[in-house]
Amino acid sequence: MKYAYIILYKLLLSTSIVWSLHVNAQSNISLSLSMVVDTLSLAGPAAQIQRLNFENDLLQFENYKKGFLPAVSISMSPISFNRSIVMLQQATDGQYHYVEDYSNSSNASISISQKVLFTGGTLSANSSLNYMNEFSQSRNSFSASPFSFNYSQQLFGSAKTMRMEKTIEYKKNEENIKEFCKGLSDIQQKAISLFMDTFLASLAKTQSSSNRLATDSLFRMAKVRYENKRITESDYKQMELQTVNNEYLEENAAKKFEDALRILRTFLNLSKDDANIEIEKPTFTLPLHINPDIVRFYIRKNNPAMLNREIRRLEAERQLYSSELQNKFNANINLSYGMNQYAQNLVEAYTNPSRRQGVSISFSIPFSMWGINRNHARMAQNNYRATIISLENEIDEFEDEIDRTVNNYNHSVNLWHIAERSFKLAQEQFELTVQEFAMGRSSTYELITSQLEQASAMQKYYTAVRDVYEIYYRLRDLTLYDFENEVELTKLFLND
After folding, report:
1. Are 150 and 167 members of one domain?
2. I need a labelling partner for 204 at 20 to 30 A (CA). Which of 41, 62, 107, 294 fits?
3. Is residue 338, in this structure, part of any structural domain at all?
């Protein structure tokens, strides 16, 4: 009978192996961690939306830069026909008379404008031509302005304000690039979380199936022993209860795996026709230790939150400077120079044009505002100081989070290896207990205890695996740096 139990146990193991091979043979897709994170997640819908939004940010910045190039505009109004009776007042006697307006006018103009960064003003050049055809008088007339130049600016502060705005816009573009890379990194973080859910559910499903097969065979052994009066009814019932529990665990694990796989498939936009998907076990290739100083270096260099704090500081300085300008003497200057002429025909309209000049200066002097502007200036100074204090506090809290995350990673790596070894030992111990039970050398209590220890070790191992990968990709997201391949994510994502 003892050897029969051993043969039955070996048959159990062979059945488990055949079942596993059958499942693998049906698999159409084998998903590895690198495939999911580095390829499929970056080709999914979320990544596509991220790229489209980033393209809009680049186009917006390109429009800002092109705003400093000469802007050319052409306007034309070829037909403006009117035939009506209008009332006019005579200049000589002031009497009103009704006259017929039966005419058509046409005009065309071209203008070129250019921002001047050095002074903060705007320079423009214009040329225009107007044509009037009076049908009632059978008379034509042309009014031409061959060229005219205009320049306008604020006397004080416009150049500095424009330079400050330029600095902020370039910083924002740099932030947009970092945010794009961080957005893709966030997608990879989501992918690694879903992959680990599916992988751990797959392990639990495989383990529960193996346990059920083992307990089914052992239950049949226990039944034979009970019938032969070699074990008590209590042990037999306990073994039957454990068999039912393992069936429940197997069914529950299968459902969790299907749910996790469905969520992963939807996130990666995988075809539903691929019914069989195998999840590969990730091999540990991550760094055994990460230096906190390296993390701080790449966070200061790449993290968009650090750049955002710099932008907020610059915007606070610009707001403070703008408030100070409102409390000072200032003036708006407009200068114009050009030529114009009026004639009966087109050629004469461009012959010997007259000069047209104009100068306009308007002053703004804050004389008496009952202290309102002074209060505005103090408010701006307080806002600036509050912004600086807030930024300094955020940096301190951020650095604490960095240290805590790095310590958690290094600690989790150690737990990974300990938990993996513990899980292997628990599996080996359970297999030995099964053999001992098959040969009648261990009790039902010892078998159940060994399985519970295996389940506990498995859960610790799952938790360690998840923690290591999630913390690593959290650090990768904070620094935009791949510590495994020693390359910045901006080089990876922007070269795609």
Report:
1. no
2. 41
3. yes
- 227 and 90 co-located in one domain: no
Instruction: Pick the closest to residue 223 from 8, 390, 477 (CA basis).
Output: 8
167 and 46: one domain? yes
For the chain, count helices (H), then strands (E): 11, 11
Q: With residue 373 as reference, give the H or E element that holds it.
A: helix 372-438
Task: Kindly state whether residue 121 falls inside one of the protein's structural domains.
Answer: yes
First to last CA, the chain: 66
DSSP letter string, 116-162? ETTTTEEEEEEEEEEEEEETTTTEEEEEEEEEEEEEEEESSSHHHHH
Q: Using an 8 Å Cβ cutoff, are 37 and 191 in contact?
A: yes
Stretch (H or E) spanning 355: strand 354-364
Residue-level length of the chain: 496
Enter the pTM of the model: 0.75
Q: Are residues 444 and 413 in the same domain?
A: yes
The answer on 285 and 183 residing in a single domain is yes
Contact present, 132 and 329 (Cβ < 8 Å)? no
| Model confidence pLDDT, tens digit, residues 200-216 | 888 888 888 888 887 78
Q: What is the CATH number of the domain that holds 231?
A: 1.20.1600.10
Task: In whole angstroms, give the CA distance from residue 411 to residue 289.
Answer: 9
For the stretch 240-293, pLDDT in tens is 888 888 889 889 988 999 999 889 988 988 876 655 788 888 888 888 888 888
Q: Are 182 and 304 in contact (CB under 8 A)?
A: yes
Domain that holds residue 282: 2-64+163-319+376-494
